[in-house]
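Q: Second attempt. The first request was missing the SMILES, so the protein and NAI are both included now.
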Amino acid sequence: MYKVMIRDNMSPVAKEILEATGRIEVVVDNDKATSDPDVLAGLIGEFDGLAVRSGTKVTKALLESAPNLKVIGRAGIGVDNIDLEAATRKGIVVMNAPGGNTVTTGEHTISMMMALARNIPQATASLRAGKWEKKKLGGVEITGKTLGIVGLGHIGRVVAERARGLRMKVIAFDPYVSQEAAAKMDVRLVRYEELLATSDFITLHVPRLKETVNMINAETLAQMKPGVRLINCSRGEVIHLDDLYEALESGHVAGAAIDVFPKEPPDASLPIMQHPKVIFTPHLGASTGEAQVNVARMIAEQMTGYLLDGVITNAVNFPSVSMEEMARLRPYLTLAEKMGAMMGQLVRSVHDVTIDYCGEVATLATRPVTHALLKGLLGAFTHKPINYVNARAIAAEKGIGIRETVSQSEEAFSSLIKLKLEGTDEKPDEIWGTIYEKKYPRFIRIGDVYLDAIPEGAMIVIQNIDKPGVIGHVGTVLGCHNINIGRFQLGRREDHAVCLVNIDTPADEAVLEEIRSLPIILSVRQVDLG
Ligand SMILES: NC(=O)C1=CN([C@@H]2O[C@H](COP(=O)(O)OP(=O)(O)OC[C@H]3O[C@@H](n4cnc5c(N)ncnc54)[C@H](O)[C@@H]3O)[C@@H](O)[C@H]2O)C=CC1
Ligand SMILES: O=C(O)C(=O)COP(=O)(O)O
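A: Got both inputs this time. The predicted holo structure:
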């Protein structure tokens, strides 16, 4: 049984889906007290999965207390409450649910813009206070006004489409979107400065990144058109709130609608929280029944797929692999991991590696295959738990450079993976592998010697001078020690040869030493390929 903790008032759909597998036990914990990372650290140890929204901060220290954690599911989009680097190093997959709350957040943005334009929250408060302030609470029309969208991603696009329906002129700034893509949405892409200077309303839809934190500050506020109105349903840190307060006080900014805060919940005594021209919602962008069911369902299905079948979908720290792709990739993942494990156990050190993917395998998603290969290779050099997620990060930590090439054609085999260790004098420094009949992994070359070896279990790898006597000698030594030989695979080139011997029980060092005693034997290593 796997154990998953669900937090942050997620839709009950998530629990239902996880429990319906019959293999996942669920604990729902919406307790405010346990959202303190120090308190949560005391509880998380036994869990394999953690499902959160924005309320739980998944810190490095918390992850240190989570030895069993394999997957974190974010039922939403922004993963800035999760220490991604620390999760990746620990080999934990972090998944989100893109698209699940996009429409809802876009609609909330439009609601905020309308409420801001017509002072609806202020008018409600005024009436509740027994006043009738028609003159004071007059608003602005939005028809014909220019809406500037910062970040033309999923939500930005929903907002653009709705705003055009409201007869606004829509412009956008997004350095990662092409003019053609924007033109298809009838949106004019402009430079940031132009957006600031010409928009009547500016709405923010960027993720929280180093480059987007404080994107709206005293300098950029000063570049805005006088009377501009701002809407922020992205992340609180994108606006420097003190600078915004100053711009509101001076009258340069006519109003702001804010859903997200640098610290949530915000301190109600902050000057901006009391400003009459600012309206607020408590991070409600994604909070509709529909969106919450969508994201809860997505995240529960994705977490189930990973925990039970190893399928990775919508991971933010690993390439996604669908169920169908996984079926085609699985034999290559196995092969690559065994190739890596073989080389890792044959050599004493690894510097840089080159991995060539040739033929059919090159048409698949090769990044996960590289991770599998690195997992096998580095497993021999580290005591840290290593898996597909953290393999590349651990390689980078060790300063190992990885060069990957793909070529669609391969003369002799339909698929071939070649691993070469660079910058080493050790031999062998190369291994090639392929898949037979779409499932069976084979090593077909070690060093410069071609052979045909089934990589499994304990194997003795012998490099020798190609002279008579080796097979008999190895057979006699192993026989004397009651070690059964499963397969004996040979290959040679010119005067040297390689033997791969699958043995049913591992040999101890004294047995290997006896094999080494024949002078024509150059090296003897035992590897374990699982
Ligand atoms: N208020 C709420 O409840 C919710 C807030 N969000 C926030 O909204 C953000 C956006 O969500 P999506 O549209 O789904 O993400 P997305 O990834 O589809 O779009 C983000 C866009 O921002 C652009 N971008 C990145 N850096 C930029 C920069 N420096 N300047 C301009 N554009 C830049 C990207 O190119 C991308 O097109 C999320 O990251 C999340 O933080 C998301 C859902 C609900
Ligand atoms: O999906 C996102 O990025 C959101 O900000 C939504 O946050 P929530 O799940 O409502 O706490």
